[in-house]
Amino acid sequence: MYKGSTVTTYGGSYKFKNGKRYYRIGGPAKQYVRTSNFN
């Protein structure tokens, strides 16, 4: 992930067991991005 890059998210954010929230993004593998990376 690069700061300022555009990411397509699918659905809402997911809350993982570690308590952090992630967005699922597209890709060949399941990739997640922490919501804290979004401004």
UniProtKB/TrEMBL annotation:
Chain ranges of the S-layer protein C-terminal domain: 2-36
The protein's matches in InterPro entries, at most eight in alphabetical order, are given as: SlpA_C_lactobacillus
Q: Under which name does UniProt file this protein?
A: S-layer protein C-terminal domain-containing protein
State the organism named in the record: Lactobacillus crispatus
| Phylogenetic classification of the source organism | Bacteria, Bacillati, Bacillota, Bacilli, Lactobacillales
